[in-house]
Design brief:
alpha/beta, four-stranded parallel β-sheet, 16% strand, 548 residues, 15 strands, nine-stranded mixed β-sheet
Length: 548
């Protein structure tokens, strides 16, 4: 494979490990832990891995070679920048324990474990992927590890290869599955440790003990570069309103971080919309009012950032979607009807409030809500073009305002969706360091003999050499939630905290950004140069540390 000049230079970058991991380490146990909620239910479900202590690593005396260890690794779920460096750090870590240790990668996600598809990751392979983006070293997949037959089938290949530890690199669902697998293997005495690593560009896998999921730093910097480029074009042409949808279905961390980096005219935060019980029309009116006020100053241009999952946070829309899911589940031939018959049927069979909301939607979006279903029969919210929905409704609102004499301007919208552009970017220095250290740290957890833990690094706003390394019991992050009609233990998603410093900093500035063009142009990720340019963590992480 031909490499670019950047790839060649980047391969030589040596991630900076925390000082505590640079020599022999010893694991220090903290206090026993408990889950964030539903303690009794979760304790019963995880009798062997609940209540474990937090671990922190400290430098020890002389390095003593341990026994060789065979380790398996899985990339699970969507891609995130830095995944390759987690695997590189894990490889180097187990080789540090003993040079005869071996690493096996299961191909295309958890399905590779179940189906016994794997490769041995040798030094030659690993060296090709250092500091690169993507998950292509072994591929990823979304197979859920949740059934006993899957666990048993996976154990067959683990035993065959002599693997005594499995590292699962994934988001909240993947690490939930890792904890379930760890509990099962511990219960049957399988002799296999399971360690998790926190991955997701969405930024919603974090809490008091996991400061950040990897990939968020790089992805938001990529998106912010693109937004900055659009804003410079917007400021130059002075004739377009850009509606930009950003990844983040379950939380608005990406949109908020990009707003803090680029200072757009409008950024909608889903969690605030829900907290204020706003309607879709409330959101539309808010944007339209800003468009009108800017037009009064001769500024018929601007940028609007929209989280991917906004629709699900609008209470009236959430109710509408729930009613549609129930209604259409009972109407299997609905897709075969003529569009007008479909619309009449839906409006006639919804509650009055939901029927009113449905009737107010542009025809294209209304059809998306009824026709695009997932295998479970639910609306595929991520397919809804929220940016086009909002711009169309804003346009209609501005026409009403123009008739009333409260708007006299030109409104020309353009649309963008930034998602896949950021998932496989070459990791920033922060993510390159963070991911390498997460993998190396996972090797230290394996060496400590523990299972059901997540690799954890803290103090992340400091230089990476000062990061604090250790492990957190995954069960500590659990609560019970209803999934597919049943109550199940899951890692609690972290939503944007409206009382937190990142949102409060945004809220204090947004009125100024709305009317006065205050754009910031972050430019591309810088890999070489002064630390204040190349190694800076996200604004979100910096501001969250002010809360501690």
């Amino acid at each position: 494979m031909k490499k670019s000049a950047l790839q060649i230079a980047r391969a030589a970058y040596q991630p900076k490990l925390p000082v505590t991991l640079t020599g022999a380490v010893v694991a220090i146990e903290g206090e026993p832990t408990q889950s964030v909620a539903d303690q009794e239910e979760i304790k019963q479900l995880f009798p062997n891995t609940y209540g474990l202590p937090e671990l922190r690593f400290e430098k020890s005396g002389k390095q003593i070679a341990g026994k060789p260890v065979n380790v398996g690794v899985i990339l699970s779920g969507g891609q995130a920048p830095g995944g390759h460096n987690v695997i590189c750090g894990l490889f180097d870590g187990i080789k540090k324990i003993n040079k005869d240790s071996r690493l096996y990668g299961f191909l295309m996600g958890p399905g590779g474990l179940v189906d016994h598809n794997y490769i041995e990751l040798t030094a030659d392979i690993i060296d090709e992927y250092r500091n690169t983006g993507g998950f292509d070293i072994i591929g990823s997949g979304r197979t859920k590890l949740e059934k006993q037959e899957q666990f048993d089938k996976g154990l067959e290949i683990l035993k065959q290869l002599g693997i005594s530890a499995l590292v699962i690199i994934g988001g909240d669902d993947s690490n939930t599955n890792a904890a379930v697998l760890a509990e099962y293997y511990k219960n049957i005495g399988a002799g296999v440790q399971v360690i998790g690593c926190p991955k997701t560009i969405d930024g919603d896998l974090k809490n008091e003990v996991i400061e950040a999921s990897f990939g968020f730093d790089t992805a938001t910097k990529v998106y912010s570069e693109l937004i900055g480029n659009i804003q410079r074009d917007c400021f130059s042409a002075k004739k377009y309103w850009h509606f930009i949808k950003l990844m983040g279905r379950s939380a608005s961390h990406i949109a908020l971080e990009c707003a803090l980096q680029t200072q757009p005219n409008v950024c909608i935060v889903s969690e605030e919309v829900e907290a204020k019980n706003q309607t879709l029309q409330d959101v539309v009116n808010y944007i339209a009012d800003i468009v009108a006020k800017r037009a009064e100053n001769g500024n018929n241009f601007g940028t609007v950032l929209i989280p991917e999952g906004l629709i699900e946070f609008i209470p009236a829309m959430k109710n509408l979607i729930a009613e549609l899911n129930d209604l259409l589940a009972k109407t299997p031939d609905f897709a075969e009807w003529a569009p007008e018959k479909q619309r009449e049927f839906v409006i006639a069979n919804l509650s009055q409030n939901s029927a009113t909301v449905y009737a107010s939607l542009p025809a294209g979006v209304a059809r998306q809500l009824t026709l695009d279903r997932d295998p479970h029969g639910n609306v595929q919210v991520s397919l809804i073009e929220t940016e086009k929905l909002l711009s169309e409704m804003v346009g209609n609102r501005l026409k009403e305002m123009a008739k009333a004499g409260s708007y006299n301007g030109k409104f020309s919208p353009l649309h963008h969706f930034f998602g896949y552009e950021g998932r496989c970017a070459a990791p920033s220095n922060f993510d390159a360091d963070y991911c390498y250290a997460l993998g190396y740290n996972a090797a230290m957890l394996i060496n400590a003999g523990v299972t059901g833990y997540m690799s954890s690094l803290r103090n992340l706003t400091k230089p990476s050499v000062q990061w604090l390394a250790g492990g957190i019991p995954i069960s500590m992050m659990f609560n019970m939630e209803r999934r597919h009609g049943e109550m199940k233990p899951v890692i609690q998603k972290a939503l944007v905290r409206l009382e937190g410093t990142p949102f409060q900093r945004f809220a204090a500035k947004r009125d100024d950004w709305a009317l006065n063009t205050q754009y910031v142009f972050p430019g591309p990720i810088q890999y070489f140069g002064p630390a204040e340019v190349c190694d800076m963590p996200t604004k979100t992480l910096q501001y969250e540390h002010l809360d501690k």
